[in-house]
Design a protein that fits this description.
alpha+beta; six-stranded antiparallel sheet; two-stranded parallel ribbon; 16 helices; 8 strands; elongated
């Protein structure tokens, strides 16, 4: 098939002229209409998308978590299903939560539209965060390994060869030489090894060899090798000098010119890891606290269910009795009494259904938090009883403990320490750059790069081997000097220094605000603990009085001396007192959990300890080898090689529990008289 046909075909010279003119005109005029594209077949647009952006799915293969295979239909109020009770202690629940949660869940984001686990997983806490920070190799927030890489020895080598042929405009070469074309064959081999020291200096050993072969006149050898073996050392003396600067900001010789970085050192990288560890501990503490709170809320749900079930059964009994009396026409059996008893039964039934729904919902939340499937044929039931004894803690001791052990304060202090070290490094950069540099070089020359003898048959010294002439050491050179540079005004360095000063001032102000905030949090925890302990005692006595009342009222009703509404009211009071007591008791235990969290001792009180993993076996072997080598050293009073400490452990925990005897037969003299300590019911 013919694509196009020409009417005339001009000469080659004319064609070139027309093409050039068309190109120039196209550049000047521009494009006015779409370019016509011709296909060998029919035009097909199936390879083009209709829109620039559309919903697509990543081609990523991932296995479904096997735990989902054990997830059955959840229990509901109308379809409770038959599930075997599974009694679980608080310690077992915490163990399950820590074992199953690689991604640390938060209680308050279950149904939130802004749940980070579903919207932005990168912001979700996990047990991978410390390892991610430890291996971070980015420019900012780099890990220790990336910071230590600045001291890695750098090895470079290059090998190249070339040929050049060039006509010489030279009468002598044209008449007497081998020809008018100068032909040069050359090669270059460069190798270097550089090591940066802890004091910021750099030592480099390099060798450079060049090969040259040319058809020139008056040469000692038609081809030759020239090279050198050189050792160089450069040491910063002013800006960026010393071990303290290098371990904080990194070696200044490895920084990018024009960019002053103060957080690229090994110590800052280690502090970044410590901050990540603090974040990890804080997330684990929040997880433990949420698990404890949900555990006791599930306990309350069971107690509420038991109380409401008892109230419903009692209301049903009263309703049947009122109905029988109404049918028999006996005293106390009016239609009003029957309707009132029936209404009370359905009200108690509604409360029971709400209690069942709350129980299922709380149990499902606890399952989610400790990483269990939705329904595995069992229903969780707390096996532990809440603490009913009074917890006595000294205020001054608790405050001192919280100011030392709180993770938030430790994290902020690490940030302050990091900024302090960076400020010291920034003050070093507000100085001129002065480097001392020196080098020593051995030169070599020869017909061959490496030969068994130096005798070349031409010279008396013998330059048959280039390496041989280099190792003789009679072609040596050296240089030593100083290099000085400084920006006029130090605008960038001063701006960085002032910025770190303001950041340090803000961080210290934040630390003071955090300490004040912690004191208020601890005060609130003390108040809540005392509040709910007192309310629990009052509800305990209220429950005893309600049980006594319902027994007396029941006897009076059966004797026909009182109406049914008093019976119904007394039964409702018993259920309310029972729920109120356990609600206050659970609130009291949650206040104890909050107090331990505010003091920073929640993990230790639950026997949960965090520790870093061990080093690789090669690191232990290297440490043993270095320790063995140091055993042969001797003390030097003039040398202080140990850097100042910037980390310290925290003191042990304090606090105690006081269990006082209960008095069940106590009668207050006044309405405001304080209640005695209660005992476990």
């Amino acid at each position: 098939m013919r694509l196009w046909r020409t009417r005339w075909f001009p000469s080659t010279r004319a064609c070139r002229g027309w093409i050039a003119a068309a190109c120039v005109a196209g550049q000047l005029v521009g494009c006015h209409s779409p370019k016509q594209i011709h296909y060998l077949g029919d035009a097909d647009l199936k390879h083009y998308k209709q829109t620039a952006t559309e919903i697509e799915y990543a081609h990523v293969h991932s296995d479904i978590d096997p735990i989902l295979d054990y997830s059955e239909r959840p229990a509901t109020v109308r379809d409770p299903a038959k599930m075997a009770p599974f009694e679980i202690s608080l310690a077992e629940a915490l163990e399950q939560a820590l074992h199953n949660n690689k991604i640390i869940r938060a209680r308050g984001t279950f149904k939130s539209p802004a749940n980070p686990l579903m919207t932005s997983p990168d912001r979700v806490a996990s047990n991978y965060d410390t390892a991610i920070q430890e291996t971070n190799s980015g420019f900012f927030q780099r890990g220790p390994e990336a910071a230590l890489s600045a001291f890695d020895a750098q090895f470079k080598t290059s090998l190249s060869t070339s040929r050049s042929a060039l006509v010489q405009n030279n009468f002598l070469l044209g008449a007497i030489g081998t020809g008018q074309t100068l032909q040069v064959d050359s090669g270059q081999w460069n190798t270097s090894l550089q090591k940066v020291m802890a004091n910021g200096g750099a030592f480099e050993v390099s060798q450079n060899w060049g090969y040259n072969s040319a058809n020139q006149l008056f040469q000692l050898f038609p081809s030759n090798y020239r090279g050198s073996l050189r050792a160089d050392y450069r040491q910063p003396l002013w800006a960026g000098a010393g071990v303290d600067y290098t371990r904080t900001a990194g070696p200044i010789l490895r920084t990018v010119p024009g960019i002053s970085q103060t957080d690229g050192g090994v110590i800052i990288a280690r502090i970044n890891t410590d901050i990540t560890l603090a974040d990890m501990e804080l997330n684990v503490t929040n997880l433990v606290r949420d698990v404890e709170d949900l555990y006791w809320e599930l306990y309350l749900a069971y107690r509420t269910y038991d109380a409401e079930q008892t109230a419903r059964d009692a209301a049903h009994t009263v309703w049947r009795s009122a109905r029988k009396r109404m049918e028999a026409g006996s005293k106390g059996g009016t239609i009003v009494d029957e309707a009132q008893a029936r209404q009370n039964y359905f009200a108690s039934r509604i409360r029971l259904e709400n209690a069942v729904g709350t129980l299922y919902s709380t149990e499902g939340q606890l399952r989610r938090l400790i990483g269990l499937p939705v329904n595995d044929g069992r229903i969780l039931r707390p096996a532990d009883e809440p603490l009913a004894a009074e917890f006595v803690s000294d205020w001054r001791m608790a405050l001192s403990e919280s100011l030392v052990r709180r993770v938030e304060l430790r994290r902020q202090k690490w940030s302050i320490k990091s900024i302090e070290l960076q400020l010291t490094a920034a003050e070093s950069l507000v100085k001129p750059r002065l480097d001392a540099a020196g080098g020593y070089q051995l030169n070599g020359f020869g017909d061959d790069l490496l030969a068994g003898t130096n005798n070349d048959g031409i010279t008396a010294r013998g330059y048959n081997s280039a390496y041989g002439s280099l190792l003789r050491g009679n072609q040596a050179s050296w240089d030593v000097g100083l290099e000085f540079s400084m920006p006029i005004g130090f605008r960038q360095a001063l701006a960085q220094k002032h910025n770190l000063e303001f950041r340090l001032a803000k961080s210290r102000a934040v630390l003071a605000a955090q300490e004040l905030e912690i004191s208020h949090e601890l005060s609130s925890a003390f108040q809540m603990m005392d509040w709910w302990y007192q309310v629990a005692q009052s509800n305990l006595f209220r429950r005893d009085a309600a049980k006594t009342e319902v027994d007396a009222v029941q006897r009076e009703y059966e004797a026909g001396r009182i109406p049914v509404d008093l019976v119904l009211r007394s039964q409702a009071n018993v259920a309310a007192a029972e729920v109120g007591y356990y609600n206050a008791l659970v609130k009291y235990n949650q206040a104890l959990t909050d107090l331990r969290a505010r003091k920073g001792s929640l993990l230790d009180d639950n026997n949960i300890h965090m520790a870093e993993g061990g080093w690789t076996p090669a690191a232990y072997d290297e440490a043993l080898r270095r320790a063995w080598a140091r055993s042969f050293a001797f003390e030097n009073d003039k040398l202080e090689a140990e850097p100042p400490a910037f980390a310290s452990p925290y003191p042990p925990t304090y606090g105690g529990v006081s269990t006082l005897p209960a008095t069940s037969d106590w009668v207050p003299e006044t309405a405001d008289e304080a209640l005695p300590p209660m005992a476990t019911p």
